[in-house]
Amino acid sequence: MLLTLSLAGCSKGKAVVDSTKKAADKVVQKVTLRPSPLDLKVGIDPAANGNSPVALDVVLIKDKNFWKTAPSMSAKDWFAQRGDLERRYRTKLQVRSWEWVPGQPIPPINVTVPRRFSGAMVFADYPSPGTHSAPIPLGGKVVISLQRDDFVMETKP
């Protein structure tokens, strides 16, 4: 503290203090594990899912064992087992669900990711063959395009 006060009097000392404070603030933010926002931008094609509504779930996973198996889970399996999995993992899963009709405008979605989660998945309910699922980052910007037979996802910094 004495060093901070003595350095604060000169311009170089102030720059060092400011620089150190900024670096310390970044470390504190990471150490305290503040929730990260997950910003989703979802678009749905007018011909999506054979011109039928598409259900989409974003699943935040806290349980490390379930996280190990989740990336290989298909959307068909997720939607069939969702109720059972939510009961089994209770506080270790957070599920956000939506359903949109083809061509519907979708406002940006912000999902707050609580601390200490292991991973996140997105599942889209399509009847066509395929897994229709993918892991997503626990923060940042994600663009999801719901297309005719599947979805395409892009992450942005």
Q: Can you summarize the main beta sheet? A: 4 strands, mixed
Helix content: 25-40%
Low-pLDDT ranges = 1-8, 27-32
According to DSSP, the number of beta strands is 8
According to CATH, what is the topology of the largest domain?
Answer: Immunoglobulin-like
User: Would you identify the CATH H-level superfamily of the largest domain?
Assistant: Type VI secretion system, lipoprotein SciN
**Cα separation of the termini:** 37 Å
How confident overall, as mean pLDDT?
86
**Radius of gyration over C-alpha positions, nearest whole angstrom:** 21 Å
Count of runs of 4 or more consecutive helical residues: 4
Q: Supply the helix-strand structural class.
A: alpha+beta
Name of the top-level CATH class of the largest domain: Mainly Beta
The spatial strand order of the largest sheet comes to: 4-1-7-8
Specify the oligomeric state: single chain
Question: How much strand content do the residues show?
Answer: 25-35%
Shape: globular
Instruction: Provide the CATH architecture of the largest domain.
Output: Sandwich
Question: How many distinct folded domains?
Answer: 2
Instruction: Give the ordered list of helices and strands.
Output: HHEEHHEEEEEE
